[in-house]
Amino acid sequence: MKNALSMYWRFCFLLLGLLITTEAVSQNKPSEKKPEIKELDEVLISNNAAQKSKKEESLNVETVNNSFIQRNLGGSLMQSLQKLPGVKTISIGSGGSKPLIRGLSFNQVIVVENGLKHEGQQWGADHGLEIDQYAVNRVEIIKGPSSFIYGSDAVGGAINIKPLPLPSQNTFGGSVDLTGKSNNAQFGSSINLFGRNENWFFDSRVTTMDYGDYRVPTDVVHVYSYAVPLYKNHLRNTAGKELDFHLSSGYSGERFKSVFYFSNVHTKSGFFANAHGLEPRNVDLELHDKSSRDILMPYQQVNHLKVSNTTSFQLGNHAFETQIGFQNNFRREYSHYVNHGYMPPIYPEDKYAPQDLERQYDKDVWSFSVKDEFRIDNHQITVGSNVVFQQNEIGGWSFLIPAFTQFNAGLFAYDKIELDEKWLLNGAVRYDYGKIKMKSYYDWFQSPVSENNQTELEYLQRSQDLTKTFDSFTWSIGANYNPGKLSLKANLGSSFRMPIAKELASNGVNYHYFRFEKGNPNLDAERSYQLDLGMEWKAQNFSFQLTPFVNYFPNFIYLNPTSAHDIYYGAGNQVFEYEQSKVFRYGAEFQTRYYFLKSLSAEIGAEYLYSEQKSGSKKGYTLPFSPPPSVLFGLNYEPQISFLKEPYFSVDYRFTAQQNNIVPPEKKTAESHVFNVAFGSKIKTGKQDISLNIQIQNLFNTRYLNHTSFYRLIELPEAGRNIIVSMKIPFSFLR
């Protein structure tokens, strides 16, 4: 550790001396003054919107744009955002991940795309987001309970992907994005085409990606007690493909706008062959190691379709917005059929499901929402309502959760009061109603059941017909005080989440974790109360932000390992049951930036989270997937170079502390030290600027473990050194 730190600071001081010299020389060149003034104006314009939002929202909100995503491009959208304090991911492989905000994830954090809540199979740690990050322009990350805005499931926060800005009038153009990654030999491209006359417009995009098995800095991993050799450091069968299509089109006038959105995201990706299924020790290594780009079993195939319309119009002092949407998430998991328990040794030919189809989920979601914004004196008032209906069908030879239908409806009112130029108050109230109906399910094979000294074969019932209803009032009050350079905020609110089908009625083996999961039909709705505070100081060459929070759950839902083992479904897997407990959490994020020179700055981003269960069988323990404290040190240099636009060079070092506060069967995770380097620029080519960005992630090919990774339980280290090159080539023609 000392050697790594010493190397880092020597490198920084050497770079600092070199850059100060370069800066002094560049400032003596009169020919470079004009572009310097031009760049300053652009920075001021881009920062105003985000800064204004922070000063008006009492919740802690971070906003990033497309430029941030390009500079920090990862294998998925969430991997590109995890540089922000308080934001982490639960990753599976190099192409799939889900958000983790302040230690909460799954159905406790929602993702909204173009105003439509993303509904997939987000209950699984191996289920990533079906989002094309090339189609993302601006993202708002809300840290903390957001139920009064979005309803159930937003107890931990929200990822709000904003709609693309409309093309300028009388234009036609587009862009081409190209990406290459060294670690998994990924090749990706995304082509955008847009056009608009006075009022009618369209914006389309096609994205394709193809990647091979990713590499880790070790040649052997231990899947529990079994040593697995890795051929050329490749994690076999983690290759994947992606094909996405997006189209938005509509009409935009002075007082009326209507936009239709259509998207289809299709992915196919393999699971690490030695850590999935019933017989990970019987993997054909020779077959898998022939090619690092083939996708063999086990693998998953997911298609997510979205169609929606957002219409907004003004009537006098009122701004109305309506949205109607449909989405379908079709997920299939394939694996070799291996009998276990009392399953027949040979799969019957007359069964409805194909022999290799382990699980299938087919979810349809219909939604409608309406809201009205209007002003009365110094009150900015928003009232609205939303209705969502879901239907999820299941298939395959394996059972984990039952088929179900679900209905949710909500009403809310929000008031923002401008007392004067410095003070803002806001308050919100919301009512939610939810109903979920789960269908019965019987095994397709018979099992022996003994009763009164007699044994008979029966089709065991895994799920019963069950209907549950939930309702709740949630509220939020907040204040903002903005006396010049200093901004203060506070928000106190409650949130609500109704249990999902997996928590209420799961009853089967989860082969990805080698455990038997059992739902609890007596669960109550999950409730949360949270106090968020914020302090920000922004001066010409120095800024800092501190965002502490305190959070209490009177009935947190979690999956508890028990001492029982299943007897019917093979291998005696340990039984995990859903329970509820009181949970107390607190933490904070800290960010600061200092400009040594106009083009040279240093930044620090830190985060800390503590959580403890105050009741239940795991009293005194933390929560699963609790991220350890971490600090990010960064050095950024943005010189003025006449033939380049917005050039930059950055180096950062992330220190992640050890995580000893765990919930068994989680394992303690050692501290880690990771270095990353990035540089790039926009290259002036006539009226258009070509963007070129290069990253070197995990610069020193460090072997380290990520406590929130899907593969943490099997001691699998994170990906090794990865060189990412991305290029954006825009083109545009005025009509």
From TrEMBL:
Family matches, as InterPro entries? Beta-barrel_TonB, Beta-barrel_TonB_sf, Plug_dom, Plug_dom_sf, TonB-dep_rcpt-like
Stored CDD domains: ligand_gated_channel (cd01347)
Q: Where in the cell is it found?
A: Cell outer membrane
The coiled-coil regions, if any, are none
Where is the TonB-dependent receptor-like beta-barrel domain positioned along the sequence? Answer: 177-699
Question: Where mainly found?
Answer: membrane
What the entry lists under Pfam families is as follows: Plug, TonB_dep_Rec_b-barrel
Report the domain of life of the source organism: Bacteria
Q: Which segment of the chain is annotated as a signal peptide?
A: 1-26
* Keyword tags: Cell outer membrane, Membrane, Receptor, Signal, TonB box, Transmembrane, Transmembrane beta strand, Transport
User: What residue stretches are annotated with the TonB-dependent receptor plug domain?
Assistant: 54-158
How does this chain sit within the bilayer? Multi-pass membrane protein
**Record flagged with keyword Transport:** yes
SUPFAM superfamilies per the record? Porins (SSF56935)
Q: Does the keyword Amino-acid biosynthesis apply?
A: no
* Protein family according to the UniProt entry: Belongs to the TonB-dependent receptor family.
Q: What is this protein called?
A: TonB-dependent receptor
Species name: Flavobacterium ginsengisoli
Q: Recall the taxonomic lineage recorded for the source organism.
A: Bacteria, Pseudomonadati, Bacteroidota, Flavobacteriia, Flavobacteriales
